[in-house]
Each structure stands twice: as structure tokens, then as C-alpha cells.
Amino acid sequence: MSSLLETHFWAIGSCRAPSALAERGRPWRPMKFPALAVALRHPAHGWTLYDTGYDPHYFECLRDWTHWPIRWALPVELPPEQRLERRVSDAGLHSDDFRRVIVSHFHLDHIAGLHLFPRAELVFSEDAWHSVENLSGWRAMRMVYHPAAVDRAQIVARGRALRAEDARPWNGFPLTWDLFGDGSLRLVGLPGHARGQLGAVFRRTPDGKEICLVSDACWTRGNLQGRAPIRPARLLMDDPAAFDDTLRRLEKFASNHPDTLLVPTHCAETVAGLQAAETFPQS
């Protein structure tokens, strides 16, 4: 049996957007979309972080005039008690305890805190990095990316780019990678919202519950029940057809694995439930 992973689920800030954009049939009033970061401890491989959420560096990136549309369209809140370094400290950890950071994709709300982990290995899909590595200005804004959010020297020295030719199919997903080679943490290709997007599947301690982090492959639980994002939201996707295909694969996976908890990492309801089960206080 593969190792169970100790887990901490942290909301690192949130943005506000009309709920109707994320799920067909919802009202147009604004709602909060938290940015989830997940700390995972393997008994042999130590601590891994999945995404970073927001960070004060996010606002620095948006000072670039080409990125003002993001600031206007998606206002962000980041209370001091939700900052990633505070979450890490409250868990009795230090940034240097994290041996690696998994980048689900290179949108700013997932990578703004990378600078906090300069010694960590960065794990990402090759396709994801290639889609943004040469972008700047308006082209970067269109991809919700800013080159200042990534230390290229760290990418070169400690980047681990997952290649499609090294992937294996698993449970209906064509591209997956067994990160530690023991089945404890499987990264899953979930393209559509962003090129090369990665989800993660693992079992947590102490109950052995299987968790599937789906990043932005869907934004709410309702997306997995036939209530997809409306058409204007599709304009923000890298590949809407791939998004639809990924969503169908997730729906089938959920049907075949009813005991697995699928986690859209911006779903307020899901994130609140995960944090409520934490063993140390959450703000």
C-alpha cells in the first residue's frame, strides 16, 4: 500500500468574481473564490507544497500597466493571517522545510508566492512552462502570468519539467506521473483551463481518504454535476474543447471513485470543509 501523506489545506487569500461566471445557473452577485495551497508530507520525501496562492508579490506584478485589467476584473483580498508565510509558521514549519513546490500551472494566483521557496525544487509540466516562458506585457496578461513571478535561475537549476513522453495513463487520464515512484502522490494532466495544468491524487493521514486536487479544471462542485461555466468564462480558457474533455474525464472518475474527494482549488465550500477538519487552528 502506498504511503499516506500528512496534509494541511490553506486558503491563501481570495478574489471576488460573479458566481454566474463559474457555474451556470448561479446568480450574478460577486462571491469569494479562495486560492488553495496544500502542504503534503511524505514519510521519506519530506514536505511538498502544491501551489502558493496569492502573495504581496502578486500586487507588485499587477502594478505593470498591462496587467491592470486583472486587478480591475478580479479584486483580491489577502489578510495578514492568510499569508502563506503565516500559514507555514502556524503549522510549526519553515519555508526551508519544503523540498519541492508543485506548480499546477503558471497563473499568478497559483505562483505568486514562489519567491518564498528559493531552495525548493519546482515541479511543473513541460507544456505549462513552454506556454509562458517567453511571454511579457499584454501576452502575459492574457495568460494571467507575469515573468517577475518566476525566478528563471531557479527554473534552470532546480526545475523538474514533467514530459508527456514520460507519462503513463491512469484511470481514464492519458498523462499522469508517479512523483515518488511509490504511488503516494500522482500528478495528473488536466489541460483546458491552462496548458499543461496538473492535478494531484493522494491519500491523507489519518483516515486514508483519497483526495484529488483538480486545480482550475473546474471551479465549483456544480461543474462536476453538469453545471459548467458559462460562455464568457470560456474566453479565459487556453483550450475550451480540452476543458470540456477534462471535465468529462473528472466526472467519470468521480462516478467510478465515489469515495474520492475531488477538490476544485477555488471552491469556497470545498476549501472551508477541508480547513474545518484541520488539526491546528485556521483563520
Which features characterize this protein?
11 helices; single chain; 283 residues; disordered C terminus; alpha/beta; six-stranded mixed beta sheet; Metallo-beta-lactamase, Chain A
Describe the protein in words.
The protein has 283 residues and is an alpha/beta fold. It has a single domain (6-276), classed as Metallo-beta-lactamase, Chain A (4-Layer Sandwich). The chain is 27% helix and 27% strand. The chain is built from eleven helices and 13 strands. It has helices at residues 19-22, 56-61, 68-73, 84-90, 108-111, 126-132, 137-142, 152-158, 231-234, 240-256, 268-276; strands at residues 6-18, 30-42, 46-50, 76-77, 98-102, 121-125, 159-162, 168-170, 173-178, 185-189, 198-203, 210-215, 261-264. The strands form two sheets. The chain has a seven-stranded mixed sheet. Strands 8-9-10-11-12-13 form a six-stranded mixed sheet. The radius of gyration is 17 Å and the shape is globular. Residues 279-283 have low confidence and may be disordered.
Q: What is the mean predicted local confidence, pLDDT? A: 94
Which second-level CATH architecture applies?
Answer: 4-Layer Sandwich
CATH H-tier superfamily:
Ribonuclease Z/Hydroxyacylglutathione hydrolase-like
Helix content: 25-40%
SS-based class = alpha/beta
How are strands sequenced across the largest beta sheet?
4-1-2-3-5-6-7
| Count of the separate structural domains | 1
Shape: globular
